[in-house]
Amino acid sequence: MPSPFNDHLRVVKEYQGALARFAPGTAPTYTSFEEYVGTRALIEALRNAGPNPGPAALHKALAALDTDLGGFKLRFAADKRVGSRFVDITFIGRDGKVLR
Hints:
Elements: H1 10-22, H2 30-48, H3 55-63, E1 66-68, E2 73-77, E3 80-83, E4 91-92, E5 98-99
Antiparallel strand pairs: 1-2, 2-3, 4-5
């Protein structure tokens, strides 16, 4: 998962913009960014599932999801359940703060 603090990716900029708009004063976190990305993926799958998606159509759309959320690509297939190969290194300091 990309760092929610480093806006080098469009998806991070969009996440930070959504936080500023809908939750002013809320600091970015890895957890909320992961939830944001998951929600964006679900929205994309719902779009791909058709006008009135039921559980089977949504499952099929999620299983075949291939999308770029703004520099963060998600790709699923019947034999590929990983979604992303993105790797980022983050350290946690002795004081519990995230270091990059």
